[in-house]
Amino acid sequence: MTNEEFIILAEKVAEGSASISEIALFNAGYESFQQDPQSLKADGLDSIGLKKESLARFWKNRDDSKRVIKLWPGFRIKAGMTRKVAAAAVAAVVAGVGIWFFSAPRHPDAGQDSRSAQYSTDIAPGKNGATITMANGKVIALSDAKSGVVVKEGDLKYNDGAAVSGGGSDLLQDQVAELTASTAKGQTYQFTLPDGTKVWLNADSKLEFPSSFVNSKTRSVKLSGEGYFEVAKDKSHPFMVATDKQEVEVLGTHFNINSYADEVSIKTTLLEGSVRINTLPRIGVSGAGIVIHPGEKATLNAASGISVKRVDADAAIDWKEGVFVFDKAGLDEIMKKVARWYDVEVADQRAVKTALTFSGRMSRYDNISKVLSKLALTGEVQFKIEGKKILIK
User: Fold this and answer.
1) Average pLDDT of each block of 10 consecutive residues along the chain (393 residues)?
2) Residue 226 · residue 202 · CB < 8 Å
3) Which of 14, 196, 234, 274 is paired with 328 by a 20 to 30 Å CA distance?
């Protein structure tokens, strides 16, 4: 990436108009420039003369009226500040402290950054892992050395072709068996269903589906928790995803559903194709036949029904891509995600629970200490790790 391209991306970050993919590219550019810091001076960025104290003010910048805390470098462009200077200032900020706020996804086996060693104890991130429960109650633990499993032709195989131990005898060729795929807290896994549909389950999630869709008018599954779906196209057999409050009907599309029981709403975000959302009659709210299109998120709230708005759809599948992406997310929302992925309990011990929102991007492959350190750097909250419990101070 050239300096000019890097500055253009930095300018978008400064203006708050960068997409998730552009943020990822910006981060990659930063990582590249970090290998040769002198290259950032080619366009005169060093002439700005920002001192370390000024850089600290930039990354800690907040909008006090809205209580928005920036976890990525950002600031309001002031009157009289040219776009070039604004972009250069952002680039300078990144050169100074951006690594704290733009963490590229890394392999889970990669070493931890020494800057995260601020806690006496630490907790490793989640990893691949899941179980499949057969109709007869038999539970098969799937290998954490694999990333996914394929259910096909009365058998279970990992997505690299290896056989799943104990996975064949209970899947009969001549009858349909009901299966349940489950991830615990701190686990994620990919499942390829009998029709070729791919489903990624986030932590603490469950998917119920048949061992075959043959002789079925629809391909129906049930989800609790969070899943990302890439549905195999079959116009004559609609794909249906049921949760406890809604049903989503698709023909062939990519979408994400967040339906955790401890969340106040169910969020369906569409990346490709189109889906129709119907609320279940027992919920007692409006929302029959609402169709959403790519880049839209439908939020079902039991009190107000379904609302639809435009979003950066890539942010909805941050977990699938190995990152946390927060866009004006409340501390409670963030800590719920942290609790599921790191399999911890969270206790908020603040005497005054000030409403805070955070924006930023962090790797899910970091130890929990690094994630907490980034939040604590804002100066608004502090954390303590006690075993498998996180205390908010």
Assistant:
1) 64 60 60 50 37 37 40 38 43 35 42 50 94 91 95 86 75 73 97 96 97 91 97 92 92 92 93 90 64 93 85 90 87 94 95 82 90 83 93 93
2) yes
3) 274
